[in-house]
From TrEMBL:
The lineage of its organism: Eukaryota, Fungi, Dikarya, Basidiomycota, Agaricomycotina. Residues 65-87 form the C2H2-type domain. PROSITE patterns: ZINC_FINGER_C2H2_1 (PS00028). Belongs to the DNA2/NAM7 helicase family. SDE3 subfamily. It is found in: Cytoplasm, Cytoplasmic ribonucleoprotein granule. This is RNA helicase. It catalyses: ATP + H2O = ADP + phosphate + H(+). GO terms for biological process: regulatory ncRNA-mediated gene silencing. One of its GO terms (cellular component) is cytoplasmic ribonucleoprotein granule. The keyword Lipoprotein does not apply.
Length: 996
């Protein structure tokens, strides 16, 4: 029976609307390429094609649009092309969805030559320059190495090597004593005389020469290969957990030809728990989701928004603040360098000053918003189903629990029925968000639901935070003392000193800390309309305690004082409010956005908030609002004050805590909407810790990543000692960490000014701990060689080997009877969301209450024990650069925050070779090694050698890897049996035999 014939309509566009269609509709789909195949054979052919490999690998080629007959150069241009009116028109004629058209690859392009090594088309006039380029030479070199390696792995000259060379997952006890696998060497040609000369391990030379975890032994010392197989054994012995790869090179000599040749076998082994490895490994290989560019939304039927959207009685409307078309077009095409140049020349003011301040930051916000919209595309869903419980529709969103994508009540999600008119969408208002599903409500015209109906889903950015920032930037309030303070703004009078002012601290500890007390006195005694005051608080120095004390003293000193206190996150704002709970409910108000749920709020603060009868957070009547002496909110939500009509200048003081984590436009929402010429601004934070999270690299380079507090600290008015007491106080007493934990970041970031003042009972509580390599040094670096993995639907990295090592340390901590440790004493920091999820999974029903989170989630927090999993363990130095390999692990600010959270014990788990590529990490690892705090995989460089702060260690290792490849390739060429004894030199004129 012949195979069923696939519907031609289905093959074109993926769907058929003819209910009487006689063809079969069973197809296989390649998700990265959106390509449909009729059989497994056809799918296999497609996955081996260059167009599929380039789609997955992200290479740029020249394509042809099958509908428009247009050539398109590269995927960036293809994303632009599928949004053009011509493409949309031609696709409709072919009954295809414009954004799902598969580009045709052009193998032969006039005027171009295909570079096989780089897999890109090159203009013929540029060919000579291309083949001399560094990237091409590296690609060519790597390709040559792969060919040589593939050839070396083949059995040859009648010699066959059999055996098991993958040790799989070995438990630590067995790996310590040694696991043995066997193999044999035999010949298929009994007339040859072959001798095994030696067995070499690649780890003995190359990138990091050293002792191998493998040992190859040949039985009975016999080396001649005869009809009797020659047995050998391989021992895998490793005292620490993790992975180990090596290459065994069997060197043979043909005694008759007197030439040598090599057969290679790859050795692999993992030390760890087999059951846990299998449970935590990825369910399937990672496949990048394509960002092909969204088709334009031609019409959108507005949905029904949740009641919470009207919970706050705003009287001042928000501006739409839509990104200008010219800026959007500039950001849509071209190189990053060209985009930045055009933005600077066309859109940004020529000078960054008071008159151009608003215009400058408005464009940076639009650039960031454009990138956020682009990033949301990877979460768009195709051909999904919804369930309905009228009037709501439920949509399952994979990844929702980890904010991928982030969806809040009040957001919009666009839905389109499969096969509907192109560009026509229905908007669903998000009414409820559960673990992995959202409740949507559409316009009444949204009908035709059935159990089998398929929908396309598009996530839209919540623009309210951006619109609130634009509203603030549009304000005419622009005092130079706040925007660009100068030394002339400093008071000419001496700052008020502690012995001249009688002030009784509410918190007695403040009185025992001169820098904290001075900061409070300076803030209280500031005349109205002073330039912003900065509390520069390095880790563990109590900047939030100082901020809270200053708020209380301001209220005591001035009965008419009103304070608006802000922080970038709800957790930071809650911390301020919790420490102000000694104020009565009539004095303290905590504002929450109506979309926030009550179970997300500390129960102690519920009576300091206002909740409507329908359960939504809101604000009390205006008369009540004006009576509150302190209002606490997030930086973005601070716009509510002007929005409900509170007059400018009502608040005498505006405090912004953790100001380094907010963008400047965020910090200025409260300032530009509520401050008057007499309002005092107080910022607390540390510019050397985490800054704001910015998604757009262009916005970062143009300055959006620099926080307001950091920009102020770089101005002359805030230089020490001139600004001391007038504009800035630096806190120097660290009450958090053991001296060994504090020493390195103190020297590196704070000029060794921090003083260790922590409670000896706390900071010394792990001295003598059995797992410490140095019982007097409470830092452990546990070297481990793991493997980067990703789940099929998530680009975030995880490392199972490090997950299991984290779990082992937690088990040891919780079971130790002498050094008693509770779950609340332990914090686990990992730089990737996927790693955090895997660690939580490993802790399930075992240590559920241990906090596991990113560096950002731990800013401002502390634990007696901090465990850091650095995750990255990629050694593909030839193909990837340092930024790709280390990701944001190499950020100095993240490093500073991560290593300064621990009070008594700091444990870092990571791949030392990868971490040492970054000069900062190399210096820190040297510090640990010199203090004998090292365990696990050994150090792979000289810890006594000076560290080159300019970096370049990735280049050195890449070059070493290239030398290793060259050496191996030359070795294979030298040992080849082709042309033995130069026999071919006299063969030039010999006739070919007709062997048939």
């Amino acid at each position: 029976m012949s195979a069923p014939e696939i519907c031609p309509t289905l093959r074109k566009d993926g769907f058929c609307q003819d209910p009487a269609c006689k063809y079969t509709h069973s197809m296989l789909t390649c998700e990265p390429c959106a390509f449909m195949c009729a059989s497994a054979r056809e799918m296999k052919e497609h996955t081996q094609s260059r167009i599929h490999l380039n789609k997955v690998g992200g290479q740029s080629l020249v394509f042809r649009c099958p509908h428009c007959s247009t050539r398109v150069h590269g995927r960036a241009c293809w994303a632009y092309h599928i949004k053009t009116s011509k493409h949309i028109r031609e696709s409709k004629k072919a009954r295809a969805q414009p954004d799902q058209v598969v580009p045709e690859e052009l193998a032969n392009l006039p005027g171009h030559t295909l570079c096989v090594a780089c897999n890109v088309h090159i203009l013929e006039i540029s060919w000579d320059r291309h083949i001399k380029g560094q990237k091409h030479l590296e690609k060519e070199q790597f390709a040559s190495f792969k060919v040589a390696l593939d050839e070396a792995e083949k059995d040859k000259h009648g010699i066959v090597i059999t055996g098991d060379f993958d040790f799989g997952i070995t438990d630590p006890a067995t790996a310590t004593t040694g696991k043995v696998l066997g193999g044999t060497i035999k010949t298929n040609n009994p007339t040859t005389r072959i001798t095994l000369v030696e067995v070499k391990l690649a780890s003995a030379r190359g990138i990091n020469p050293g002792r191998s975890s493998y040992e190859v032994n040949v039985s009975k010392g016999r080396k001649d290969i005869t009809t009797v197989p020659l047995d050998f054994s391989i021992i895998f012995r490793q005292r620490y957990a993790g992975r180990c790869q090596d290459r065994a090179e069997f060197v043979f000599e043909d005694n008759q030809l007197r030439r040598r040749f090599v057969i290679v076998r790859q050795l692999e082994g993992i030390v760890g728990n087999k059951k846990d490895h299998k449970r935590l490994r990825p369910v399937a290989p990672y496949v990048p989701r394509p960002k092909s560019g969204r088709q334009a939304e031609l019409s959108v039927v507005e949905g029904v928004r949740p009641p919470s959207m009207k919970a706050v009685p705003y009287v001042v409307p928000l501006p739409r603040a839509i990104i200008p078309n010219g800026l959007a077009d500039t950001l849509s095409i071209g190189s990053e360098e060209n985009k930045i140049a055009q933005i600077r020349n066309i859109f940004l003011p020529s000078e960054f000053n008071t008159s151009g301040y608003g215009r400058h930051f408005k464009h940076l916000l639009w650039i960031e918003e454009h990138q956020m919209e682009c990033d949301l595309q990877i979460y768009d869903m195709i051909n999904v189903k919804m369930t309905t419980y009228p009037p709501f529709y439920q949509l399952v969103v994979p990844g929702l629990a980890e904010n991928r994508p982030s969806v809040l009540v009040g957001d919009r999600i666009l839905v389109q029925k499969k096969g509907a008119q192109q560009g026509h969408w229905f908007e669903g208002g998000v009414h409820n968000v559960r673990k992995e599903e959202v409740n949507l409500r559409f316009n009444n015209s949204f009908g035709g639901w059935s159990r089998d109906q398929l929908y396309n889903v598009r996530f839209k950015l919540n623009r309210y935070p951006m619109r609130r920032q634009h509203q603030a930037l549009d304000s005419a309030f622009a005092e130079e003392r706040l925007l660009f303070p100068l030394p002339d703004h400093l008071s000419t009078r001496p700052y008020p000193k502690q012995n001249e002012v009688r002030l009784r601290p509410v918190n007695p500890l403040i009185g025992m800390n001169p820098p904290q007390l001075q900061a409070v006195i300076s803030i209280v005694k500031q005349p109205p309309g002073s330039l912003p005051f900065v509390i520069f608080g390095p880790p563990g120095t109590g900047k939030t305690f100082t901020t809270v004390e200053a708020i209380k003293q301001v209220l005591k000193a001035n009965p008419d004082a009103r304070v608006l206190a802000c922080a970038p996150s709800n957790s930071a704002a809650d911390l301020i409010a919790m420490r102000l709970l000694d104020l009565s409910p009539s004095e303290l108000f905590r504002f929450y956005a109506p979309s926030r749920k009550k179970d997300q709020v500390p129960h102690q603060l519920l009576d300091r908030a206002f909740i409507r009868l329908d359960g939504h957070f809101s604000v009390p009547p205006m008369a009540v609002m004006k009576r509150f002496r302190v209002v606490v909110t997030t930086c973005v939500s601070a716009s509510f004050a002007s929005g409900i009509g509170i007059p400018r200048g009502h608040y005498t003081h505006i405090f912004v805590d953790e100001a380094g984590q907010a963008t400047e436009p965020e910090a200025f929402i409260a300032i530009k909407t509520m401050a008057s010429s007499s309002t005092n601004i107080i910022l607390s934070g540390d510019p050397k810790q985490l800054g704001p999270v910015i998604r757009s690299r262009i916005a970062c380079q143009l300055g959006l990543e620099i926080s307001y507090i950091e920009r102020l600290m770089n101005r002359d008015a805030y230089s020490l000692p001139d600004g001391y007491g007038h504009s800035v106080i630096k806190l120097v007493k660290n009450f958090r960490s053991h001296e060994a934990i504090l020493k390195f970041p103190n020297e590196r970031f704070y000029d060794s000014e921090l003083e260790q003042c922590g409670s000896p009972k706390v900071i010394n509580s792990f001295i003598g701990y059995p797992l410490l390599p140095n019982k007097k040094f409470p830092i452990i670096f546990h070297g481990i060689v793991g493997k980067d993995d990703r789940e099929p639907s998530s680009p975030s990295f995880f490392n199972v080997d490090e997950v299991l090592e984290v779990k082992a340390y937690v088990q040891a901590l919780r079971s130790d009877r002498q050094f008693r440790t509770t779950d609340h004493d332990i914090g686990v920091i990992a730089p990737y969301n996927a790693q955090c999820r895997k660690i939580r999974s490993a802790f399930r029903n075992f240590a559920d209450s241990i906090k596991v989170g990113s560096v950002e989630e731990f800013q401002g927090q502390e634990r007696r024990v901090i465990i850091i999993s650095t995750v990255r363990s990629s050694m593909e130095f030839v193909e990837y650069d340092l930024r790709h390999t280390l990701g944001f692990v190499a950020s100095p600010r993240r490093f500073n925050v991560a290593v300064t959270r621990a009070q008594a014990l700091l444990i870092i788990i990571g791949d030392p070779t990868v971490l040492s590529l970054d000069p900062l990490w190399r210096s820190f690892l040297n510090y640990i090694h010199k203090n004998k705090g090292w365990t696990g995989a050994p150090i792979t460089w000289d810890p006594n050698a000076p560290v080159d702060e300019a970096g370049g260690y990735d280049t050195q290792i890449r070059q070493a890897a290239q030398l290793d490849m060259n050496d191996f390739t030359r070795q294979m060429e030298d040992m080849t049996l082709v042309g033995v004894n130069s026999l071919e030199e006299g063969n030039v004129d010999r006739p070919w035999r007709d062997v048939e």
